[in-house]
Amino acid sequence: MEVRQVVTVLALVLLLALSLVGLAMIPLGLPGLWVMVTGVLAYGWLTGFRSVGIAIIAIVLGLAFLGEIIENWIGFRYAKRYGGSTRSGWGALIGGLIGATIGVPVAVIGSVLGAFIGAFIGAALFEYSYSRHPGVATRAGWGAVLGRAAGAAVKIALGVVIAVIGLYAVLSSRP
């Protein structure tokens, strides 16, 4: 086997591994889309950018940025949809980040639970500090949890699209 063929096979294995790991990271609140983007870029670099050009790089970067924006927007939207104010949206974001960080020592599931619990507590506390109504605060917290789940679902869908684009790059590669 020629060196170029070996490198191409290794690039393919790396792309597949990073795509699968990235998809698994998304529900955990970790930067899975960015791991997948790294896989596409690594594949391109290792294969001399024969099939990964500026267009593919721009598309996968755009999808990853879009995923981050949509995730945050959905979290805000759901907190407000369930009766919260903009303040509850900020609480959901901050609480989710703090909760995910605190949950890290508990293997795998800790950051997920921490992010959901943190989003609920953050949205509820921020909303309660504004409205002084426990019912409104609780609904906003619940909305934040649903928003976090919906945001993760959107990011997983975008991750699948990035994986398909990576597969397209592999299949369109010229020997």
- Secondary-structure element pattern, one letter each: HHHHHH
Number of helical segments with 4 or more residues: 6
Number of strands: 0
The radius of gyration computed from the alpha-carbon positions, rounded to a whole number of angstroms, is 19 Å
Please specify the SSE layout and strand pairing.
Layout: H1 3-25, H2 32-46, H3 54-81, H4 86-103, H5 109-131, H6 134-171
What does this structure look like?
This protein is mostly helical and 175 residues long. The chain has one domain. It has helices spanning 3-25, 32-46, 54-81, 86-103, 109-131, 134-171. Helix 1 runs antiparallel to helix 2 (32-46), helix 2 runs parallel beside helix 6 and helix 3 crosses helix 4. The radius of gyration is 19 Å and the shape is elongated. The two termini are 13 Å apart.
